[in-house]
């Protein structure tokens, strides 16, 4: 089988998808939106969502194949770098079907991997998520230090 495994561990239950939407971190990109959360499982798992806005069945299936192949390679790289395990949900966008899996893999490496290696999908000490820290987003109840409030 070589260095890359062929097995793909999928998230199948609607309850698990909803849990990741609600409690997971969000990492948007051009080709997809990824929700992730650290788990205590032995392996990384992935769920892929393609809505009807993406196109017909052929287009949606291609988007799923592209994300699945990119995740298969990304999963092996991530497993070699950290002992943490995650659940992922990828929501495909219209552009996903037109992309090659190498491009999607590059996006995962650039945008997703630093978030995973830095915080592990949990909130940091200041209560912000990794995605919020990376983007510099303030929580709505924070008051700037120089304010008179």
The percent range for strand residues is: 15-25%
Shape: globular
Q: Tell me which CATH architecture applies here.
A: 2-Layer Sandwich
Quickly count the domains: 1
CATH fold-level assignment: Ribosomal Protein S5, domain 2
Overall SS class: alpha+beta
Question: Which percent bin holds the helix content?
Answer: 40-55%
Q: How much is the radius of gyration in Å? A: 17 Å
Strand order of the largest sheet: 1-2-4-3
Q: What is the level 1 CATH name?
A: Alpha Beta
Report the total helices: 4
- In N-to-C order, the SSE pattern is HEEEHEHH
Head-to-tail CA distance between termini: 63 Å
Biggest sheet: strands, sense, closure?
Answer: 4 strands, mixed
Low-confidence stretches: 121-125, 137-149
Q: Give average pLDDT, whole number.
A: 82
Topology, number of strands = 4
